[in-house]
Amino acid sequence: MLWLAVAFPDLGLAVHTRAQPPEVNARPLALVRDGRVLAGNAVAMAAGIQPGQRTAGAMALCPVLRFLEQLPEEEARLIKRLADSCIAVTPTVVLSPPHTLLLEIEGCLQLFRGLAGVLRQLRRGLRQIEMTYTLALAPTPKAALALVPSAQADASLALPLPITHQTCRELLAPVPVAVLPWPEPLQRKLAALHLASLGELLALPRAALSKRLGTDCTRYLAQLLGELPDPQTPIIVAEDFQETLFFLDGISQVDGLRFPMKRLLEDFCRFLRQRQWSCARFQWRFAHQDKSRQSLIIASSRGEPQAARFMQLTELKLEHVRISAPVEAITLIATEFHPQSDTRLSLLPDPGQEDTKALELLDRLRARLGAEACQCLHVVDTHRPEAAQHLTTTAATAQPPTQPDSTPRPFWLWPEPKPVRVMEGQLWWQGALTLLSRPERISLPWWEASDTRDYYLARHDNGAHYWVFFSWEQHRWFCHGLFG
Question: Whole domain around residue 156: which residue ranges?
Answer without folding.
Answer: 3-27+64-165
